[in-house]
């Protein structure tokens, strides 16, 4: 048949492995509590592109978290797995496990994409 239909990309990690991963806050991150949430400041190095030459070598990026985001961020200690954070979230906010899992994993993923945390896979 069609060769392009037979090839599939592997997603990398399966569900169980990703839930056992341990999020760790990066060293350059500074968090400051606000009235309703948390403000995170991190150092970001400039890119390699042509326009990056006109930027300073290190810039600061700010990320603001609401109360729930700040609570989940507070659970990141380098020892708890994503599954531990999901279990805490289910108990704290009385939500459906699947909903909590999807929300927490997506939130951790967005923090990792922004450079706030790294995720260590066992």
The gist of it:
The protein has 122 residues and is an alpha+beta fold. Helices cover 39% and strands 25% of the residues.
Biggest sheet record: 3 strands, antiparallel
How many domains is the backbone divided into?
1
**CATH level 1 class label:** Alpha Beta
Specify Rg, calculated over alpha carbons.
18 Å
Mean pLDDT, to the nearest integer, reads 86
The helix content, as a percent range, equals 25-40%
Number of strands: 5
Distance between the termini: 39 Å
Outline type: globular
Total number of helical segments?
A: 5
CATH architecture: Alpha-Beta Complex
What share of the residues does DSSP label as strand, in percent?
15-25%
> Low-confidence stretches at least 5 residues in length (pLDDT < 50)?
none
Order of H and E elements: HHEEEEHHHE
Strand order of the largest sheet: 2-3-4
SS-derived structural category: alpha+beta
- Determine the CATH topology: Outer Surface Protein A, domain 3
